[in-house]
Each structure stands twice: as structure tokens, then as C-alpha cells.
Write a structure and sequence with these properties.
Chain lengths: ~110, ~120
Amino acid sequence: QKEVEQNSGPLSVPEGAIASLNCTYSDRVSQSFFWYRQYSGKSPELIMSIYSNGDKEDGRFTAQLNKASQYVSLLIRDSQPSDSATYLCARRSNDYKLSFGAGTTVTVRA
Amino acid sequence: SAVISQKPSRDICQRGTSLTIQCQVDSQVTMMFWYRQQPGQSLTLIATANQGSEATYESGFVIDKFPISRPNLTFSTLTVSNMSPEDSSIYLCSVETSGRRGSTDTQYFGPGTRLTVL
């Protein structure tokens, strides 16, 4: 079993809709999770980090963490064409190493 | 956040040769890492670059193939040795930064080095 499982998509949503991305992880000890956005030909850009159970909101982005169920999700509200990218979830181990999911490619249709 | 630069940004190399990639950070950081992103794939950790000691490699990566230097807290190099077409990837360095009051530790990536091996 991979450490981080992510629905690889692709995910296509109309402009203004909510895009929902999900990730599950296998390590019950994991405490830190990150969502990165990667545009084609660019390096990953940090969007959100989440450490505690529940929701964390930052602008149009909301990260959700459920440690009991071992999943972390990202909601993008009011999706814009500029949100079209690949989104990577990552789990950080206690020694700061990141394990990435496969990435979900999101396309926002104008 | 940290400002990270990498050199070169891209290169095309012949098989059997070696390429050294540099990573420079604008502030001192304790943790630096090297990742590889093969075409169409996600990121895989190669090694942790330890300042003043040998790098710590992940399973499947060895020092002879990917020697790493970390002479100080702002700089590291990764060498891809005896290259083959299978080494064609994007190589990225990342740094872990300590969160300021009210925020948490975070890991940022450099712009990456796109390597093509012919």
C-alpha cells in the first residue's frame, strides 16, 4: 500500500463551482499534511498546511483533516480557470520528509 | 518563506556524463532535501542533505549515483553521475523553514532543474 493515495483524476469543473480533492494515508502516526499546486513546467507551490483535525480555511481554499479516518481533503470554492493545475497532497514524517500522492489534475472550464 | 534558486534551470546531457545541480537559499535552513519528478509522475525523495555529514539516502538511491554536498546552511549540490536516459527528470531541492509565531514549519521547493539525457 502506498503511503499516500490520491485520486489522480483528471477532475473537470465549471468556473465558479467547487472542486473537491481527496487523499488517504496509511501511517497513523502522521501529523502534518500539505497541499501543493503545480502548474505545468513549474515547481510545486504550497497552498495549505494542516495539522489538526477539522477544517482550515484560507481564501477560497479549505483543507480538511480527519485523523481517525486517515484522510485529508482540499476544497476549492468559486473555481477559476487560473486554478487549473495539478494538486499534490503530501504527508510529512517526523523527520520532515515528504511523501507525495500521485497528484490530481484539475481543469476549470470557463 | 525562503527564496530558493537552482542552477542550471535545464540541461541536455549525453549518457555516461555527470551533471552537478546547485541549490542556494537566501537564509540559513537546517533541513534541505532533494527530490526527483519523472515525466508525468509525482515527486520522490532522493535524500536529505545534512550539513557537515553525509547525506541520508532513501531506498533505491545510492551515494555513488547521486552524491550530495552540503557545505553550509544555505547551499547544497546534487550530482547525477554516469547518466542514462532513465535519469531524465526534474530535480528539485526543498527546504524546511521554521514557522514564525502563530504559524507552522513549512517546506518550500526550488524552481527545479529539468534534465534530459540523450
